[in-house]
Structure formats: C-alpha cells, structure tokens
Amino acid sequence: MNSKINFLLFSSLGFTMNLFGLPERLPNVIYIMADDLGIGDLGCYGQKFIKTPAIDQLAKEGVLFTQHYVGCPVCGPSRCSLVTGKHTGHANVRGNVLTPVLEGELFDLPLAKDEITIAEIVKQKGYITGCVGKWGLGGPDSEGSPNRQGFDYFFGFLNQASAHRHYPEFMFENNKRIMLDKKVYANDIFEEKVLNFISKNADKPFLLYFIPTIPHADLKVPNDDIGEYEGMFCEKPFLGDPAGRGFQPQAKPIGTYAAMVSRLDKSVQKILNMLKEKNIDQNTIIIFTSDNGVHDRAGYNPDVMDSNGPFRGIKRDMYDGGIRTPYVVRWPEKIKPGTTTYHVSAFYDFLPTLCDLVGVKVPEGCDGISFLPTLTGKGTQKAHDFLYWELHENGGLQAVLKDNWKLIRFDVDKKEYRYELYNLSHDPGEQRNVAKEFPDKVEILGHLMDQSHIKNERYPFGYEMGHN
Asked: Residue 14: which pLDDT band, with cuts at 50, 70 and 90?
C-alpha cells in the first residue's frame, strides 16, 4: 500500500501520520458548556464561596483563557455561533425564537441544513459524535435537529423552554421522545448518558458536546439538599409566579445556585475518572465554558458571590459580564500545565480550531481563527482584527471589540443610536464611558458594526422590518 493511500485510509479512521510516517490517533474532544454560569463562579477565576475543585484542576493542568467571549449574551445564538463558527452578524440563528413543529408544540427555529457544524467537520476524519444536554437549534426531524447536523447520538432537550425544568416531563433520545414524568433530575441523566458515551466509544476518536442545563433557573437540586451551603447565606425566598408561567418557588436561591454549580463540577470529575479508567485521558482535549453571562432569575442575586467577577453586566448585556466567559482547556499530551493566555478569542474560533486539529479545510463564511497554536505553543497565533456581537432583545444591541476598545450601540431597533465606549485595557469593569471624548473611535467602530451586520428576515432589527 503506497503512502498516499495509507494516509487517506488512516485519516478516515481517525488517525494522522506522525513525523516517522506511523499512524497516530487523533485526540478525543469533550466540549462542556454550562448554562448561565458566570465567569466569577469558578475557583480558578477567583470564586471564594462555591467549591469547584475538578474544574479548577483542569485549569492547573491546562490553559486558562482570560479574555474569551461567547457568541451572544443569550442561549440560542451563542450556541449557533459555537457550532457553526459564525458571529451573530450573519449567523443562521441570531435569537431565541420559537416556531410550531409537532401539532403546535413550539421548538426553536432550526439551523439551516446547509450549515457546516463542528460535528460534520470531525466526521470527515472518522470521529464518532455525541451531543448531550440542551440543544436549542431545532426540533425533532427538523433540518436543525442534532442528528441532521452531524451528531451520531443525541440525548436531552431539543427546545430551550422545556429545559427550564430540572425535573422535566420528557426529553429526546435522537428524535424519539423519552417520557421521564418529572421523576428524574436532568443533570443526573445527562451525566449517565455522557459516561455511557465515553465508555462505549473509548476505542475510537470521538467528539462529545456536553451542554448541561445547570445553573440555569429554575433553581433546583434533588431533595433540596444544598449540602455545605446550608446556612451560608442570608436567603430571601423566591415566591415564584402564582400563575405558573415563570420560574418555580425556591426558599434558598443563593445556596441552591451554589449547590448546582458544585454538582456540575462533580460531573466533570466523573468524566475525568472515566477517561483515566479507559486509559484515554492523555489524548483527550477537555474544554469547559459557559454559554453566556450569569443570570439574575428565580431569586438569584449574582452580586452575592461576584458571579460576574470584576466585570459589569449579566446575561443579555453587552458589557463583559454578559459576554466574557470562563474558558479552560486541558490536553495533557500537548498543553503545558498551569498556563494562562491573554489571547482574545470567541466561540466562533472553536470550529476552525477543530479544522486545524484534524486537518480539514475551514468552511467558507467562518469568522473564527484557530487557537490551536495557543494550546500547543507551536506555530504563530493569528489575532482577530475585531470581534462583533448583536442581540435582538432589549431594544436591539450591537458591540464591537478592537484593540481592547469596545463600542456598544444601544436602541438599534429604532435606529436612534446611543453609544458607550470603553477602553478595556484601562477600564475592564466598563465604568467610564468615553464616547464623547473619542468620537473618532466611535465612528471607526460604528462603521465595523455596519459592515458586520447582514440583514436577516427572521431576525430583523426594528428599523429593518418592512424594508428591502
């Protein structure tokens, strides 16, 4: 067998060639994305009250990113940005919008069938792909369902509204509805499915996208057992919505939030234990992050534990508290332990990083830049010219970050713009708006906003409705 045929064969089976021309297995990738977890909620980012020893250990054994950004300050578009490598200026999903699918049942608007996802990238190299948790990018049998977007296996919530309940009536396994009758805690069954997936596929390269729903509200843990957080905080009970439309009552929202974060940390530890048990720990990349900034729902007050760290804002804000996320990467074979990076990066960099990792061409329209050189210390790390975000809520918001100058545009729907400008190098907490002092910066960054936003009929800003 000649070397070219040899290479093609091993590539399709999840192998690449090393410097000696021998087959070398490509790494497994586990991407863990919490739901509404703040950057300040982890010990490795300065948290003093909540215990997260497993995630902190990931940071000690890998690299901690200090300036990594989500795709959007709300769930759906942030997840779209991650799996497609596109920012919200031209992404397929730019907001949390529901559409009837099954007999009037509402699901999130689906990803388009021609989108190329992270799962479809690695499948070109023979990877097995799994997704467990909250998908939020299309209902069962829609073009956006995980099974039609490159994932061999899916278990969890297909729509985001159902994911608000941690004891749900049902979930989906692939496209089949699995009745749970409000008897199973969501994270417990997610954990079980994740460990089963790793165990079943330990002998082949895999991509596992684990997207748990904690600590998103409702705030709930089994038997209301908050363990070591009992009595730690001065609690104000959350009475809930008597009409049943919103989040459920919770007597101890602060302690419960903390317990949920620690429960997720324990799931991370079980994943690490499984990798070691299967002897695949050294060649597995683990990434831990959150989909957007911390929430303030169901009685939780993020100020109590500095959940947004030193940054201003929370979920649905364009301040860094809404879009700067924890990002920890561990890869024992390649990453120097205890590394900190100041490389500015975003969710849409993950897809091109995967392409770089497995040797696949980056799809057209991708906005990301591979951060593989940052992980391995090899090669030259390219930098973004700028980062861009838009949000189709709260009157319409846009933001641009360039050379650590950040411009936020408010009231986009009415096109009656109001601007705030911050220099993050000198003012990371975004306390001093200097828009009036630097009008040239406002003009330059505002022009980048205009260039980055492409009109979309499904997600128009208010001023665009009814116009060609």
From this structure: low
CATH 3.30.1120.10 range(s) for the chain read 388-464
Q: What is the pTM of this model?
A: 0.94
Domain 388-464 matching CATH 3.30.565.10: the answer reads no
Residues of the chain with CATH 3.40.720.10: 25-384
**Cα dist. 374→64, 371, 378 in Å?**
11, 5, 8
Pick the CATH number of 25-384 from 3.40.720.10, 3.90.230.10, 3.60.160.10, 2.120.10.30: 3.40.720.10
Q: Please, which pLDDT band fits residue 20 given cuts at 50, 70 and 90?
A: very low
Report the mean per-residue pLDDT for the chain. Answer: 92
CA distances from 449 to 73, 87, 179, 388 (A): 17, 12, 45, 7
pLDDT digits (tens, 9 = 90+) for 222-258: 999 999 999 999 999 999 876 556 899 999 999 999 9
Do 223 and 259 contact (CB within 8 A), yes or no?
A: no
pLDDT at 244: 59
